[in-house]
Amino acid sequence: MSKLKFKTNIRCGNCVRNVSPFLNKSVDIETWSVDTESEMKILTVETDLEASEVIKMVEEAGFTAEVLNE
Amino acid sequence: MILKGSYPVGGITCAACAASIESMLMHTHGVKDVRVNLVSNSVRLEWDDEIISLNEMANIMARLGYQLLESDLSNGESVELAGELRKTETDQLRRRSVLALVIASPVFVLAMGFHHWTIGFYLQALLTTALLLGPGRLFFRNGWRQVRFWMLGMDTLVAMSTATAYLWSLFVLLFPEIIRQFGISGHLYFESASVIIAFVLIGKYSEDRARARSSSAITELMSLQPDNVTVIRNGIELEISLNDLIRFDRVLVRSGDRIPVDGRIIKGVGIVDESTLTGEPLPVDKGKGDQVSAGTVCLNGVFTVVSEAIGRETKLGQIVKLVEEAQSSKAPIQKLADKISSKFVPAVALIALSSALLWLSFGGEDSITRAVTAFISVLIIACPCALGLATPAVITVALGRAAREGLLIKDAEALDHLASVDCLVTDKTGTLTKGTPIVTEYHVFREDPHLVFSLLVGLEKNSNHPVSYAIINRFTEYADQSISDSITGVNEIAGSGIVGNYNSKKIAAFSGQCLRNLMSNHENNELVKLFGYRGIEADLAGVETLDVLEKMERDGSTIVVFLMDQSVCGLIAIGDEVRPEALDVMNRLSSLGVTTIMATGDNLYSAERVAKQVGIKKFYGSMMPEEKAVLIKKLKNSHKRVAMIGDGVNDAAALALADVSIAMGTGADIAMKSASVTLLNGNLSRIYIAVKLAKKARLISYQNLFWAFVYNVILIPVAAGALIPSLNLEINPSMAGLAMSISSITVVMNSLRLRRTSL
Question: Is B257 a catalytic residue?
Answer without folding.
Answer: no
